[in-house]
Amino acid sequence: MAADSDVGLSNGKVNDHVDPQRTYQVVVAATQSMGIGKNGKVPWRLHSDLKFFKDVTVTTSDSSKKNAVIMGRKTWESIPLEHRPLPGRLNVVLTRSGSFDIATAENVVMCGSMNSALELLAGSPYCLSIEKVFVIGGGEILKETLNAPGCDAIHITEIEGNIECDTFIPAINNSVFQPWYTSFPLVENKIRYSFTTYVRVRNSVVADCNPPNDVTHSGPGSARIGYKTFTFLPKMIFERHEEYKYLRLVEDIISNGTLKDDRTGTGTLSIFGYQMRFNLRKSFPLLTTKVFWRGVVEELLWFLSGSTNAKVLQEKGIHIWDGNASRDYLDSIGLTEREEGDLGPVYGFQWRHFGARYTDMQADYTGQGFDQLMDVINKLKNNPNDRRIILSAWNPSDLKLMALPPCHMFAQFYVASGELSCQMYQRSADMGLGVPFNIASYALLTCMIAHVCDLSPGDFVHVIGDAHIYRTHIRPLQDQLQKKPRPFPMLKINSEKKDIDSFDAADFELIGYDPHEKIEMKMAV
């Protein structure tokens, strides 16, 4: 709806006037170079894009209200007569032309500028009858409104490929807007595209409040964000935030799970067989009820090194393996000869030395066993269509030697359209403490392997067998269900590192992560 180039109508910045003014959301389709039109027309026709536009701009939470769409005169004139005014919406047309007579049309009003339109919609009767305001074009109006302070969100159909355009809009300001939701890619008429909603997360950058040794944030994107509630989004968009996949599973287990005993004696509510899919193309799925990011990074690097020594993590202040590496626990499972801290041939050993004979955590296993991780990387580089690109931590002959048999036990990698996706099977999933960590860990592993193989991140698919909630975690998780998700952060990896064994924690920059406060849950051992 934004292919034309209307003249500037607001004589400067969009929000020159003081409140009261309505804020608004932009709806637009654009190429990767932010092209939106050619010769006054949209140079593509995508049925799903038209449906998305209609769904976003028509749908309201209150059935007694409607939304408003603001457009320039040329955009109005580009709408076929039989479709204008756009039905089910108040059409606000910006024009200075006195000869442009639409004043008598139903559901249509004229304004001379964006300011006057936003002021009109903030006053009676529209403040009571209009739920949301959307700016839909044309080119000059979008140039003024896209990154302006009054813009709460941008719903963009991102068109891939080289499509010639002569009308362009500014790039989205990523220091102000972060992705809320990105659809998985679609292909229609040989055009690949996806829908992304960006939300305004900050008006200005303020001092970073993170502790000095936390790798959660660094660099220019590290500033603390003044978050608000994002319920201004259309409900259909708000509920597409991928964190809801996790939250809905938690809710389902609490409501419908089977009460079971378990090895820890704590007791669980459990369901069997579930899948969650996370899109890694725009953002990173670190749940916004606080996840220990530094622990995610350091543990994954520890896996990649092949280490089985929990003391390596302890020395870095990471204590997630302490319970399973303690003297009392090792003795309780019959590993009385095992040195405290020695977890046995767990994840890292299987990834890097599968089939080697395990003695203890101090031994040098260089050249022993099969290096599955390097096999994965070599296949991705040399034969990406191979259907046997597998990383397995499940070695039945070694299970009796492990402090804890692998929970996340098997991963398969897949390449399509230059993107790397990973599907991981997890036999046992602690929804309170483990799963948020596991999602982040395998998403990070996928991004790292994509990085060293010159691929782009695609999807992380999390398949769960026994998805359970410990009885002691029910109340904290009920509290978590009351918290609204916030935008996922973005991940930046040091571009100079191309060897999977060369990374350290400082090579990962997490941009825009400002979670809710941590919810305390005690680990069941």
From TrEMBL:
Swiss-Prot/TrEMBL keywords: Methyltransferase, Multifunctional enzyme, NADP, Nucleotide biosynthesis, One-carbon metabolism, Oxidoreductase, Transferase
Keyword Phosphoprotein attributed: no
Catalytic activity: (6S)-5,6,7,8-tetrahydrofolate + NADP(+) = 7,8-dihydrofolate + NADPH + H(+); dUMP + (6R)-5,10-methylene-5,6,7,8-tetrahydrofolate = 7,8-dihydrofolate + dTMP
Record pathway: Cofactor biosynthesis; tetrahydrofolate biosynthesis; 5,6,7,8-tetrahydrofolate from 7,8-dihydrofolate: step 1/1
Any one biological process term the GO annotation gives: tetrahydrofolate biosynthetic process
Active site: C407
Signal peptide feature range: none
Residue ranges occupied by any DHFR domain in the UniProt entry: 23-200
One GO cellular component term: mitochondrion
Gene3D superfamilies: Dihydrofolate Reductase, subunit A, Thymidylate synthase/dCMP hydroxymethylase domain
Name of a matching Pfam family: Thymidylat_synt
Family matches, as InterPro entries: DHFR-like_dom_sf, DHFR-TS, DHFR_CS, DHFR_dom, Thymidate_synth/dCMP_Mease, Thymidate_synth/dCMP_Mease_dom, Thymidate_synth/dCMP_Mease_sf, Thymidylate_synthase
Molecular function terms from GO: dihydrofolate reductase activity; thymidylate synthase activity
Annotated family: In the N-terminal section; belongs to the dihydrofolate reductase family. In the C-terminal section; belongs to the thymidylate synthase family.
Role of this protein: Bifunctional enzyme. Involved in de novo dTMP biosynthesis. Key enzyme in folate metabolism. Can play two different roles depending on the source of dihydrofolate: de novo synthesis of tetrahydrofolate or recycling of the dihydrofolate released as one of the end products of the TS catalyzed reaction. Catalyzes an essential reaction for de novo glycine and purine synthesis, DNA precursor synthesis, and for the conversion of dUMP to dTMP.
HAMAP family given in the database record: Thymidy_synth_bact (MF_00008)
Protein name per UniProt: Bifunctional dihydrofolate reductase-thymidylate synthase
